[in-house]
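note to self: dont lose this again. the chain is below, predicted strucutre after it. 503 aa total, dont forget to put it in the shared folder this time
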Amino acid sequence: MRPLNHPDMYKQIKESIEKAAFGGGLKGKVFRGGAWLGAGSAAEQTARFARNMILTRLLAPEAFGTMAIVLSTNAIIQSFTDIGVRDAIIQNPRGGEREYVGAAWWMTFGRALSIYSLLLLIAPSIARFYGNLELSPLLRVTAASMLFEGALSTKAYVALKEMKFSKWAAIFHGGGICGVITTVILSLFIRDVWALVLGNLTEGAARCALSYIVCPFFPIMKWEKKALRELVTFSKGLFGLSFLNFIFSRTDIFVLAKMFPAAQLGLYTMAIYLVQTPTNFILNLMGHVVLPTFSQVQGDKVRTNRIVLQIVKLVMFLGMPVLAFVFFCGRSLLTTVYGQRYAAGAAALVVASCVAIINIVNAQATGVFYANGQPGLHRRCVAIMAILMVLLVYPLARWFGLVGGQLACLISMIVGFLFQVDRIRDFTAINVFEYGKIFLISSLIATTVVVVCLGTRPFAALARPLPNIALGIAGCLFAYGLTVMILLRGQRELTQNVLSTDP
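---
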C-alpha cells in the first residue's frame, strides 16, 4: 500500500472541485446551475424578507390575513386543473421539440383562461361566505395574475430542461423582485391590502414579459397529436395531486379564517411566512436543479440513491441547528423582525420550522418519482397528508389555538414522510439504515445550540431579543464547525482510500 501523500491529496481534492465547478459533465452543470439559481433566489427571498419587515410596520395585520384568504382561494381553483406542463417538458425526451412546446403553451393558456373565468363568477359567493364583501374585487383582480402565468413562454421550461438555469433565474426571480419593489412603493401610498394585491399582479406580469425577452417564443396555431397525447398522459399521473397538496398546505388558512379574526390570522400567517421564506428559497432551488438532475440518471438506482443521501445529509446537517435556534430564539426573532405584537406567533413559527425541514427532505423522494415519469407514486403520500390535515386541523385549533393549524401540518407531514420513505425504498432500494443515521447525527450536532442557549438562561441581560438572537447564532456556528469537521473527516477517509492503492 502506498502511504498517503498530502500534496497528492491536495491535488486530488483541487481537481475534484475544478471538475465539479467547470467540467462539462452533470456535476458541472448542476454546480453552475445551482449557483445561478441560488444567487437569483437568494436575491428574491432577501427582497421579500425586507419587504415583510417594512410592510408589517406600514400595514395592519388584517391586511395580511385578508391576503392569505385571497391567495388560498386562487390556489384551490388552480389545484383542480393542474396539468404539470413544466414537469412534463423537463421529463420527456421530446420536451424541447417545437411541436411539443407549442402544444404545451396552448394547454397552459387554456387552463389559465378557464380558471380566470371561473373566479370572476364565484368571487361574490366566496366574499359572502367569509362575511367580507371586499374579497370579491380583490379576488377578481388577483385572478388576472393567472393569465400572465398561463401565457408564460414555454421555452422557459425548455431552458430548465437543458439546465440553462441562468435564463430561468432571470425570469422567475427577476419577476419576483419586480413584484416586491412594486408592493413596497404602493404600500407607501395605499395603506391596505390593495398594495399586496397589485404587487402580486405586477409580479405575474413581469415574469410573463421577461419570459419572452429571455426565451423568445411564438405559439404555433397547430400542434402534433402525439405531443398532445404525451402531455395528457403525463397529466393523468398528476391528476388530483395538486389539489391534495393544496388541501394539505392551505386547509389551516381556510379553517382558521372562520375561527379567528383577520388580525389574529395575520399574526399567524406572518409568523409562518418567516420560516416559509427561506424554505421556499431552498425548495425552489432544489426543485429547479434536482428534477433535471434525477432526469439525467433515470434508471441508475445507485447514482440516484447516492444523490438523495447527499442532499438529505446537507439539509439535515444545516437544518437541525436552525430548528434548535428557532425553538430558543423564535420570540426574539419575531419581535426584532416584525415588532412586539407579532411575538404571539412564536409557537406557530417553531412548529412551522419542523414542518419545513421534513418537507425539504421529503421533496427529494418526490423528485425521484417525477424524474422517472411516475408522479402517481407520490399521490398516495399526499392523499394521506391531506386526509389527516382535514381531520386534525379543526380539533387541534380548538384545543391549542392558532398553533393547532401547524400542529396538524406537522403530524400529517411526519406520517406522509414515513410513507414516502417506504415507497422510495421499494423504488430504488435505498439503504434505510444509512438514511436514518443522518437524522441521528444531525440531531446530535444540534445539541450544540441547545447547550449554548440553556447555559445562558440564568443571565437575564442575555434574554433580551438581540443578545438572545446573537447567542443562538453563536450556537449555530459552533454546530456548523462540528459539521465541517465531520464532513472533512469523511472526505479525508474517502481520499485516502482512493490514493492508498496497491502499486
